[in-house]
Amino acid sequence: METKGSSINQEAVITPQQLFEHWQAHRGLTRKVIAIFPEDELFNFSIGGMRPFADMVKELLAIAEPGLKEIATGKKEELNENLMVNTKLQLLEMWDKTSETLPGLWEKLSTDAFQKSILAFGQYEGTIISTILYFIDNEIHHRGQSYVYLRALGITPPPFWER
After folding, report:
1. Pairing state of beta strands 117-120 and 124-127?
2. Which parts are annotated binding residues for a divalent metal cation?
3. What b-and-e string marks burial along 81-95, b requiring 16 or more CB atoms within 10 Å of the CB?
4. Does residue 66 register a pLDDT over 60?
5. Is the pLDDT of residue 129 over 80?
6. Which SS3 state, helix, strand or coil, does residue 122 take?
7. Can you give the residue ranges of every domain in the chain?
8. Residue 24 Cα distances to 9, 103, 107, 150, angstroms
């Protein structure tokens, strides 16, 4: 057992590849939710002042690829949620394109970079790891909102553990 002031073991609890696979599993589940969401409700349905699910998906798209590109290249990216998308098919195509691009960006990250500071989109200050965890947490949050929407529409969402 470590005592206060002793050196802390710096071995990783999770590898960068495991973290990426975890994120991609969440992205796969979110894609399933987009696919089962009724198109006529996707862009309009809301509860309690929350945004329609399509707007939440646009936010996730605006964060994932541009955010990881900023992290991987150091080139500043603008957060742009105003994506010109108005069909479920377009959302799914953008989601799939992003999913194809992320592995190449992830490969550019060095293991020692995860503790470096970043100001993502000129707004979110933290380490690279905290920023990536924010991307994942934000997606889970919005997917949870979509589950409420689906249940209100009488649709059973996919089990959250099926990633």
Report:
1. antiparallel
2. 142
3. eebebeebeebeebb
4. yes
5. yes
6. coil
7. 22-43+52-103+130-157
8. 28, 9, 14, 22
Amino acid at 127: T
User: At CB < 8 A and 24+ separation, what contacts does 50-57 make?
Assistant: 50/145, 53/142, 53/145, 53/146, 53/149, 54/85, 54/91, 55/81, 56/142, 56/145, 56/146, 57/30, 57/91, 57/95, 57/142
Q: Helices 88-106 and 53-73 meet at what angle, rounded to 10? A: 20
CB count in 10 Å sphere of residue 33: 20
Taking only the tens place, the pLDDT of each residue in 40-50 is 999 999 999 99
Do 125 and 119 meet the contact criterion of CB atoms below 8 Å apart?
A: yes
Q: What is the pLDDT of residues 84-120, one digit of tens each?
A: 888 999 999 999 999 999 999 999 998 888 999 988 8
Quote the crossing angle between the two packed helices 16-36 and 53-73, to the nearest 10°.
160
Of the candidates 131, 114, 102, which has an alpha carbon nearest to the alpha carbon of residue 12? 114
Q: How does pLDDT run across 7-42, given as a tens digit for each residue? A: 555 677 888 999 999 999 999 999 999 999 999 999
Which residues are documented as binding site?
A: 142
Query: What local confidence, expressed as pLDDT, does residue 8 receive?
Result: 53
